[in-house]
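Researcher: Quick test of sequence recovery. Tokens follow.
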């Protein structure tokens, strides 16, 4: 019995052996978990690195677009300061321009005034300007298409890129333009007055007062008071808003300054001489009354010299020495003397004079949707006293320092005067010599404007803004 008890006690105190395989399973489990954790950590690191690279790439992608936008804004700022900047300078970020007459002009230098140009394929994207400081990470390139075919719109293509990685690029195409003199039927720096038989079918603006006893079918805007017993079929906006509840300042916070027209004639003079044979420049030291320009329906203009006469004469002057030329493709005719204009125009042209411009007879277009004439006089825009009692003529005109008027302001004309176009005049106008007066705005001027006509607003409106490429 004692022996059985001994064995039982021994059996009771003998250590229990673990089940086979328990230690190896734990090790495997630890290794598996470790590998999973390492894989997960590696995946997180890779994912983080990928997202970081993508974020940096997206940041660069946005930054190069901002560089392109900065290029556009810089160009608009320069055109705001100088409305004809594109015709004066080659921007420092532009590739060199190729002249239509041959030769090239380098970036950042003066442009000779040609109305159009091109960029050779080999020259594209060769000129870049840093964004801000010379240490900037980004830069931009510009290509410019100037106004043409009567449009005031300027088109700028701007490309931005990262300097350390030139393959990262984005491009914008932006078209913009300002408001022109030709957007108004009447734009006067002085008070204007319309009689009971006058009808205005376009916007009337004055930096002085406006008296309108006739019919106004479009808006009337006066920095002074609007008075008169006329019929107003659109808004009336004057200094205190009394006629129609619309104040002048709410529409024109900054009145239009006639000083912006100061270089209008000289720009036409410059253009008329910029490309040999492409413009017409009339200059003489002889004492003459005026050059006479008669536009012909075939796209030519006959030029004569009138040695004596006056706009107030009841008979037209005798003019001689006729020479016929093509209406210039550059769209510029300039005279150092006064000019008489009449005829039927085929083409787009602006005639500027260092003296007066005299409408000597009907002036019409072959096609009102394709042809346009602008007249810029340093002095007055006269309707000659010798014209028929009833006359219709077309054109956008500027009397920079003078008036828009019948030569004998209060003379007797028994018929109807009709002008289809737009007028800007420093000293107002006077057409009371005609029994009936119709001032018709030429709606085509919203899309087809005379070459080299000045822009009014200091701010430009964007017509098209898109990413390209």
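Model:
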């Amino acid at each position: 019995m004692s022996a059985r008890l001994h064995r039982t006690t021994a059996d009771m105190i003998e250590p229990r052996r673990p089940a086979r395989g328990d230690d190896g399973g734990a090790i495997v489990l630890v290794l598996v978990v470790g590998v999973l954790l390492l894989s997960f950590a590696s995946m997180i690191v890779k994912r983080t690195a990928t997202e970081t690279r993508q974020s940096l790439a997206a940041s660069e992608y946005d930054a190069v677009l901002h560089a392109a936008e900065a290029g556009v804004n810089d160009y608009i700022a320069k055109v705001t300061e100088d409305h004809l900047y594109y015709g004066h300078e080659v921007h420092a970020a532009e590739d060199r321009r190729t002249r239509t007459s041959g030769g090239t002009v380098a970036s950042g230098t003066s442009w000779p005034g040609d109305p159009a140009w091109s960029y050779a394929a080999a020259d594209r994207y060769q000129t870049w300007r840093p964004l801000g400081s010379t240490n900037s990470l980004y830069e931009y390139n510009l290509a410019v298409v100037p106004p043409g075919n009567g449009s005031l719109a300027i088109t700028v293509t701007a490309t931005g890129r990262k300097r350390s990685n030139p393959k990262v690029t984005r491009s914008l195409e932006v078209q913009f333009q300002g408001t022109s003199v030709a957007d108004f039927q009447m734009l006067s720096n002085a008070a204007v007055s319309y009689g009971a038989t006058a009808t205005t079918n376009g916007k009337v603006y004055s930096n002085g007062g406006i008296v309108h006893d006739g019919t106004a079918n479009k808006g009337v805007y006066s920095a002074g008071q609007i008075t008169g017993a006329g019929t107003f079929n659109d808004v009336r906006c004057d200094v205190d808003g009394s006629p129609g509840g619309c104040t002048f300042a709410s529409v024109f916070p900054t009145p239009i300054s006639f000083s912006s027209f100061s270089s209008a004639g000289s720009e036409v003079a410059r253009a008329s001489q910029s490309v040999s044979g492409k413009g017409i420049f009339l200059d003489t030291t002889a004492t003459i009354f005026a050059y006479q320009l008669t536009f012909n329906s075939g796209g030519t203009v006959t030029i004569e010299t009138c040695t004596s006469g006056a706009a107030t004469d009841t008979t037209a002057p005798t003019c001689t020495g006729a020479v016929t030329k093509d209406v210039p493709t550059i769209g510029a005719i300039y005279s150092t003397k006064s000019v008489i204009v009449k005829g039927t125009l085929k083409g787009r042209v602006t005639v500027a004079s260092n003296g007066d411009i005299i409408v000597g007879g009907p002036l019409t277009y072959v096609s009102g949707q394709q042809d346009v004439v602008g007249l810029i006089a340093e002095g007055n825009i006269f309707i000659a006293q010798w014209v028929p009692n009833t006359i219709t003529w077309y054109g956008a005109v500027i009397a920079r320092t003078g008036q828009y008027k019948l030569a004998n302001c209060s003379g007797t004309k028994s018929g109807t005067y009709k002008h289809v176009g737009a007028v800007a005049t420093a000293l107002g106008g006077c057409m009371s010599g005609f029994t009936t007066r119709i001032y018709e705005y030429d709606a085509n001027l919203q899309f087809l404007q005379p070459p080299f006509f000045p822009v009014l607003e200091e701010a430009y409106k964007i017509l098209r803004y898109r990413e390209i490429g």
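The CA atoms of residues 260 and 456 lie 7 Å apart.
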